[in-house]
Amino acid sequence: MAESVDRVDIAIIGAGPVGMTLALALAGGPYKVLLIDSRRRGAWAADPRALALSHGTRQILEHLGAWNAEAATAIETIHVSQRGGFGRTLLMARDYDIPALGYVMRYRELAAALDAQLDSSRLLNDSPLIDLRSSREGTAIRLASGADTRRFAARLVVHAEGTPGNDVEITVRDYRQHAVVAEVRPAGGHAHRAWERFTPDGPLALLPLAQDYSVVFSVPPDQATQLLQIDDDGFLAALHARFGGRVRFTAAGPRARFPLALRIRQQLTATRQVWIGNAAQSLHPVSGQGFNLGLRDAWELAQTLLASAGEDPGDDAILATYARGRQFDRGGSMAFTDGLVRIFSNDLAPLRFARGLGLLTLDLLPPLRHFVARRMIWGARAWP
Ligand SMILES: Cc1cc2nc3c(=O)[nH]c(=O)nc-3n(C[C@H](O)[C@H](O)[C@H](O)COP(=O)(O)OP(=O)(O)OC[C@H]3O[C@@H](n4cnc5c(N)ncnc54)[C@H](O)[C@@H]3O)c2cc1C
User: Fold this and answer.
1) Residue 351 has what pLDDT?
2) Exposure check for the chain: N or C terminus, fewer CB within 10 A?
3) pLDDT for res 383
């Protein structure tokens, strides 16, 4: 007997924070939406990352009823400096008439808040994709579901399955850095200050999180291995050495690592398909842009689709409108993070001097400093 085929308007593949944001932004609209994930529901509970969320991201999450205020720690100032060189700059929320430049939240707490708002009947977990075929008429999706397979027909497939592997559509720049993440306890509290410190090995970020700092330590892969193998005292000593005594730490939690590369999908759309979030672009975590950009992808796609209610959501013209609208924000965020990594991750004396001048200029020239701060707060809306 032939397997039955369930019909939906929009299938979102990947129930990570970006896929869930899109599902929520489309809820209540005219489309029948299905959100699919290969993992069990709540698998994100094991994720060790914390994310810096911009003020603009908070506003969108609030609108969706998914802002987890109790899990958010405000960033009131950001201190930017380089190891072994002069110059530093300070960004302050009070200069922008907002309560915080951004917020820090654990990935798992962000995911839990989004998940709590989902309509469970529109969510399919534990269902790895077996096959996807798209044509002008529609897309055919085959999923594994336990020992069985299930088939769906969708008018539009949204790819939100996170960082892609190597594929001809993806341009990859391997940074030869891995991020080692951990939560560490500062002596004397954090006073809601985040630190971004550039070192020749890679950037080091300290993000205030509850009573602690979330550390994102970007280093070459062999150093990442060492940082995972040493004991807590050794890890704290490595942190102190790179941080130059500005902050003292008293305890460290478990550590984990993530390889870092820039992965860019050249075409955001194909016949009845569109890519958003990390599936469209995976960035270096420096300056915390990745999820904020992915959330704006999800939000803008939902607005484009809702504005075309009554039309075919997989229509080429609608997808082209979306892709055109994302060019500026996407290009700016990729250039901003990639530029920071490339300019700062080396130890050439002339560049060190130029970077010091850059940081000093940033501090002395308010318009330039305001541009950088607005990029952290709003993303593409940084431009006046
Ligand atoms: C160390 C580190 C620190 C970071 N810090 C920040 C920060 O401070 N601020 C910030 O904005 N961003 C930050 N990022 C980036 C941020 O984590 C990502 O941009 C964000 O997680 C992307 O969300 P996503 O939903 O697109 O993908 P993911 O979070 O990867 O979720 C993808 C989902 O798709 C599912 N999936 C995968 N394959 C399939 C499949 N074949 N079929 C069905 N489902 C599938 C997965 O199970 C998962 O649930 C950081 C990243 C790292 C590594």
Assistant:
1) 58
2) N
3) 45
Is 110 a residue whose pLDDT tops 60?
Answer: yes
Residue 28 Ramachandran class (φ > 0 left, ψ -120 to 50 alpha, else beta): left
| 49 CA → ligand 1 middle, Å | 10
C-beta of 285 in contact with ligand 1 (< 6 A) = yes
pLDDT, tens only, 321-371: 999 999 999 998 888 788 777 766 655 555 565 566 565 555 555 666 677
Q: Is residue 334 part of a domain?
A: yes
Backbone angles phi, psi at 308, to 5 degrees: -110, 20
Q: Is 22 in the pocket of ligand 1 (CB under 6 A)?
A: no
Do residues 344 and 353 lie in contact, with contact meaning Cβ atoms separated by under 8 Å? no
* H helix runs in 120-267, sequence order: 221-229, 232-243
Domain of residue 18, CATH code: 3.50.50.60
Q: Which of 36, 51, 257 to mutate to test the pocket of ligand 1 (most atoms within 8 A of CB)?
A: 51
Find the 88 Cα to ligand 1 centroid distance in Å. 31
**Contact in structure between 107 and 17 (CB atoms under 8 Å):** yes
Distances (CA, A) of 11 to 20, 141, 214, 282, 298: 12, 9, 34, 22, 13
Domain contains 9 = yes
CA dist 62 → 16, 25, 58, 114, 285 (Å): 18, 11, 6, 11, 24
Q: Looking at the domain assignment, is residue 196 inside a domain? A: no
pLDDT-derived band at 287, boundaries 50, 70, 90: confident
Percentage of the chain modeled with pLDDT above 70: 88
Let me know if residue 17 belongs to a domain.
yes
- 298: domain range? 5-73+104-169+265-344
Helices (H), 232-289: 232-243
Tell how far the Cα of 163 is from the centroid of ligand 1, in angstroms.
7
